[in-house]
Amino acid sequence: MKYLAPALLSLLVACKGGGADPKPDPASTSDGPTGDGSAAGQAEGATKPAADPGGAPAATGPWTDFGAFLNEAGKAVLLAAQGKQPDAKWTIEPLADGPGDKLANAKIAFTSAEIEAMGPADYLRTNVVVFPDNSVKWVGIEHRPGAAHVSSMEGLEAISPVLAGTTKRLIETLSGDACDLPVMTPADELPAMKGQKIPDVKAQLAKTCASMKGKATGWVPRYDDFTVIATIDGGMVSIRSGLQLKDGKLVLNKPRVR
User: Contact 229/110 with Cβ under 8 angstroms?
Assistant: First the structure.
């Protein structure tokens, strides 16, 4: 059976435009996680870059710990979509019924996540694509003046140093003199999505660098949509989840397969 990845396709199209209005996506929080398990942030000791199962060396660089963390989260989301219980360090509710048996041979091609940050009078939104070697490429970057109508993740630093540290590094990079990120370009190809037009994010990056200049302090992070794209039966499957704080823990929303 072949699947499509509407979330990622929509994201790629949105990157060419002006971006989405900074309002919470109801679909990303409609299925709250349940069950036991400690905070995912406590699992960060297991997120050191590791070699790709196919034998390719792991990526290196300032974003690879973040990439490794999201890859571990992606594996947990896939297991939950298969109806299995991931390691207890991940809080996520497995699907009790659904396409679990059809996902038995699914292999993750890449994962994506939405990162937001709220400043004193600014809003920043971007998306990342993470590959199995833990390398990260930024897909959409948008900075707006004015308050955002979304809730931040207060206290994320204590719960997940990797996620909080990634946002801090992102803000410092965008607001500094050497403003540069590994971004997606039309020459890139996303696994399992060959033939799809990839937007050139360099112009977005340059515009954001100019508007973020000198604005390095006062930002609070937010992580929202989380999508796993896997290959199966010659096609693709999109598994959507989300990241949120609940009862002092970082949790993954119950997966939704599309």
Answer: yes
Cβ density class 215-252: b for 16+ within 10 Å, e for less: beeebbbbbbbbbbbbbbeeebbbbbbbbbbeeebbbb
- Find all residues with CB under 8 Å of 195, minimum gap 6, and list them: none
Using one digit for the tens of pLDDT, what is the confidence trace for 182-210?
Answer: 988 776 767 656 666 666 788 889 999 99
Per-residue pLDDT tens digits for 209-236 = 999 999 999 999 999 899 999 998 878 8
pLDDT at 62 over 60: yes
Query: How far from the centroid of its chain's Cα atoms is residue 75's Cα?
Result: 13
Question: Token pair for residue 51?
Answer: 């070699």
In the chain, which residue ranges form alpha helices assigned H by DSSP?
Answer: 6-16, 26-29, 64-81, 156-159, 161-175, 202-212
Distance between CA atoms of residues 207 and 19, nearest Å: 13
Is 0.85 topped by the overall pTM?
no
Q: Are 232 and 106 spatial neighbours (Cβ–Cβ below 8 Å)? A: yes
